[in-house]
Amino acid sequence: xxxxxxxxxxxxxxxxxxxxxxxxxxxxxxxxxxxxxxxxxxxxxxxxxxxxxxxxxxxxxxxxxxxxxxxxxxxxxxxxxxxxxxxxxxxxxxxxxxxxxxxxxxxxxxxxxxxxxxxxxxxxxxxxxxxxxxxxxxxxxxxxxxxxxxxxxxxxxxxxxxxxxxxxxxxxxxxxxxxxxxxxxxxxxxxxxxxxxxxxxxxxxxxxxxxxxxxxxxxxxxxxxxxxxxxxxxxxxxxxxxxxxxxxxxxxxxxxxxxxxxxxxxxxxxxxxxxxxxxxxxxxxxxxxxxxxxxxxxxxxxxxxxxxxxxxxxxxxxxxxxxxxxxxxxxxxxxxxxxxxxxxxxxxxxxxxxxxxxxxxxxxxxxxxxxxxxxxxxxxxxxxxxxxxxxxxxxxxxxxxxxxxxxxxxxxxxxxxxxxxxxxxxxxxxxxxxxxxxxxxxxxxxxxxxxxxxxxxxxxxxxxxxxxxxxxxxxxxxxxxxxxxxxxxxxxxxxxxxxxxxxxxxxxxxxxxxxxxxxxxxxxxxxxxxxxxxxxxxxxxxxxxxxxxxxxxxxxxxxxxxxxxxxxxxxxxxxxxxxx
Length: 580
What we know:
Layout: E1 3-5, E2 11-19, H1 23-37, E3 40-46, E4 53-63, E5 76-79, H2 83-87, E6 97-100, E7 114-117, H3 120-127, H4 133-138, H5 140-144, H6 149-159, H7 165-188, E8 191-193, E9 205-208, H8 209-219, E10 224-227, H9 234-242, H10 244-247, E11 250-253, H11 257-270, E12 274-278, H12 280-284, H13 287-296, E13 300-306, H14 323-327, E14 337-339, H15 344-361, E15 364-370, H16 371-375, E16 377-380, H17 441-458, E17 466-468, E18 475-480, H18 484-494, E19 499-504, E20 506-508, H19 514-519, E21 523-528, H20 534-543, E22 549-552, H21 561-572
Parallel strand pairs: 1-8, 2-5, 5-6, 6-7, 10-11, 10-12, 12-13, 13-15, 14-15, 18-19, 18-21, 21-22
Antiparallel strand pairs: 2-4, 3-4, 3-16, 9-16, 14-20, 17-19
């Protein structure tokens, strides 16, 4: 048996077991160990919607160069439960080296598998009990890679800093058992690991999409959040709540999503910079509130973390299925802005920008993420904090102030109660310039046109899509949101000078150059994590052009690099034409 990881190629390590076995803890531990050792890492997880049992897994990619996407391939599998082998059977190949206890092999055909027995229960017992099993398992991998054990020891001391000296020493002892076992098994089964190290990753930060989004909100001046917990959007609520005192944020867990959106609108009316974070099912309850914000021209920022629907769907998996929900949310017609970050850097940038644009245009702004982006952990150089600027558009009112003054500029000066001499009236019914209810058809026409005119101004600062690859492309691959990195890595692997990627991080309104990009291509392809090509429809409405090929996935799992490579090769070489 021999498995080799060539220099400059990533090693794909998967840890799998039941919920409650500490899979995520192992993932976090290995990410830090490898980063501090000089490797680039990326990790992502898939987990079932249960507190105990089932079968979850985390993939950690280790590489000598930056890496940030999911691969289907498993090079090393640490199987902590019997179910792990069947759960991941479609990803296990004859080259996969599987580390597990002997009892977990009983229900699988072992003749074609590279199985390496690890006496995990016995070692854990010797270390002091079952509680040490995951720390032993976690350190098999550093042993395989011959990572400096001093880094392991240092990390354990940091993780258990608040524990007693005895607990710390026991965990170091357990870690050393796993480390030695990894080194021993490496020699026994002739595992050759040549993945090169680099100095750069040591200076990087490890961050997931949730943290990046929440930090962007803080950079945008967010000082109020009202939400009802709903995975996978809850992480932003918990992050801002954890740091509320530090950054002067009021955090309110509302009784439901209707209350949450109305609290947020009220907070903006009073002068705060507020947001809500939710998922599709929760957002469905907020749509009347969104329409209220459109009518009273009050800013609101909504973070919608997508997961598969309809209804509860797959509550812990990923999808890009809520774009149309956001685009057509609320009754009536009013302007809105929709961002869809594809990386932590974009999540930070767009979340920060959302608050400024909501304030400026007095309209709803949406940050559309998904479970894959939010839960994945990236190794990045940092976030662009220096260019984060809080832009406040609130005015001091005079005694003749009218909230909805009609002028050539559709952006009426926005006052807040108590800031000046004026009375700030707002009403959910149609209203006149002062904010009083009206049923005048002439005033109604003026107010509708005033609100819609904002789109002319919004379109002047739409973010242009990013062209990745040569300008002289013949095939154009369109991505939005979290599909960015998998496609970028796939195209790098294909290495075709006639194929480029066009990535959108603002999906509404779309940039005016869209049609120009499309017309230059002989073939157009769109890749989306949904069943109906929701962004493809937006493109058709905006540019009047149908995307020729659609690569769609909607089983709750993100695109792997391998499947993108396969699909693109088939299309580019004319072997397969996907249904439009």
